[in-house]
Amino acid sequence: MEEKKLYINGEWLDGSGSEVIQVLNPANGEVVGTVPAAGKKEVIQAIEAASEAFDAWAALPARRRATYLRRWYELMGEHKESIAQILTLEQGKPLAEARGEVAAAGRFLEWYAEEAVRVTGEIIPPSSENKRIMVLRQPVGVVAAITPWNFPASMITRKIAPALAAGCPVILKPASQTPLTAAAIVELAHEAGIPKGVVNLVTGSATLIGKALMEDGRVRKITFTGSTEVGKMLMRQSADTMKRVSLELGGHAPYLVFDDADLEQAVAGVIQAKIRNAGQMCVAVNRFFVQEGIYDAFVSRVRTELKKINTGNGLDESVTMGPLINQKAYQKVVDHVTDARELGAGLLYGGNGRHESDHPEAGYFYEPTLLTNVTDEMKIMREETFGPVLPLRRFETEEEALRLANDSRYGLAAYVYTQSLSRGIRVSEKLQYGVVGLNDGGPATVQAPFGGFKESGIGREGGHHGMDPFLEIKYISIGI
């Protein structure tokens, strides 16, 4: 039973009220921990702490900031197993996946410790002999980071690490379903000696905390990962104080398999790009488009692989796919499959869900499901499912595949399988998506920019590009 607190100005605090949030194991409904529900008072305290810490942290030599991040990274490695256990308990994914995520979270700290010392300015040739032009890159100010439940470790460090590297203090608001992982990671920031006010943690109502953060002009930037609908709301709210925003939002990823694809590689990519985390990923494939010549062989091989998936409690080392996060997520999957079946989709494998808990919000499992003969009017082809359902559709030509793939308001990730170098480059360039996996079911990595086109977001995280959203550009004209 993990009983965590708020972390504000270097101290662990209870909320001013008596309300606490119970954190459930989504596999069985057991209460695995509690966190306080912060009120507006605590949010304002966090903003004040971060604001007061800003000048000193921004003025600290980059090498010193890098040292703090490096120590935090080392502690993440030392506590990898305990954090992975907490992550699985509150989020549900198999332990093997949780360990991989914690390792990835650590790599963001390592990477941005290195990027901190690479923030440079410019000297630009002037237009007259009695002037000099200097350009500086300076931290934007206090950052509010709002993170999701599906990757409760890596999404935190992907946001906090570049912010701190740039010189920005952070207020972290994690998802209420998975706040324990966030608290465990912040505990290590404290142990790493990061100065007071530079990292703050508030848990509780997204509406209450979000409103307080958005209304306060001292918060200069919002970085958010979550649904497109909430992202749009935050963007509207940011206008009053002209906050900078980074938004990583929903996806509706297409998976294009051409006749000349390496079949084994394409099938292996399905497991990575769709089954991982029970399909609860913004980059998860939602639409499979398979060329006529390879369709039957591909479907047969995928069905064989899906039969090997063992669904259950992620703490069981033999489990390869965990539960859906809650009843709402489960019902959406059921609704999408039911709608598709009623409109004529064929059910080749799966289609069954189960509820294994007395708790109404936990214990929901849905087996990997393979649907064929899907059509455009089905919900599953228009909306993000966030579950382990694979809708398949045939295509004949490259032009048709591109038309189908780009027919979406989303543009986060897309996948292409072909052994033709020319086709691979041609199709990748024409796909209207921010991330393309060409013969790769897992393209996200710390050193590369991650983000979407269209309604899938604004800005990029990862790589040296991930520093830019936390830096302002200042031009100084000097008369001599």
Distance between the termini: 66 Å
Q: Biggest sheet: strands, sense, closure?
A: 7 strands, mixed
CATH superfamily of the largest domain: Aldehyde Dehydrogenase, Chain A, domain 1
CATH topology of the largest domain: Aldehyde Dehydrogenase, Chain A, domain 1
Broad CATH class of the largest domain? Alpha Beta
What shape does the CA trace take? globular
CATH architecture of the largest domain: 3-Layer(aba) Sandwich
Strand order of the largest sheet: 15-18-19-14-13-21-22
Q: pLDDT under 50 segments (min length 5)?
A: none
Secondary-structure class: alpha/beta
In the residues, how many domains can be counted?
2
Number of strands: 25
Estimated helix fraction: 25-40%
Instruction: Output the number of helix runs.
Output: 13
Short description:
This protein is of the alpha/beta class and 480 residues long. The chain is built from 13 helices and 25 strands.
Index terms:
6-stranded mixed β-sheet; 25 strands; globular; alpha/beta; 480 residues; Aldehyde Dehydrogenase, Chain A, domain 1
Helices and strands, with pairings:
Blueprint: E1 2-3, E2 6-8, E3 11-13, E4 20-24, E5 31-36, H1 40-59, H2 62-78, H3 80-91, H4 95-115, E6 122-124, E7 131-139, E8 142-146, H5 154-166, E9 170-173, H6 179-191, E10 199-201, H7 206-215, E11 219-225, H8 228-238, E12 244-248, E13 253-257, H9 263-275, E14 285-291, H10 292-306, H11 327-342, E15 346-349, E16 353-355, E17 364-366, E18 369-372, E19 389-395, H12 398-406, E20 410-411, E21 413-417, H13 421-430, E22 435-438, E23 453-454, E24 457-458, E25 471-479
Parallel strand pairs: 1-5, 8-9, 8-11, 9-10, 11-12, 13-14, 13-21, 14-19, 18-19, 21-22
Antiparallel strand pairs: 2-3, 4-5, 6-7, 7-25, 12-24, 15-18, 16-17, 20-23
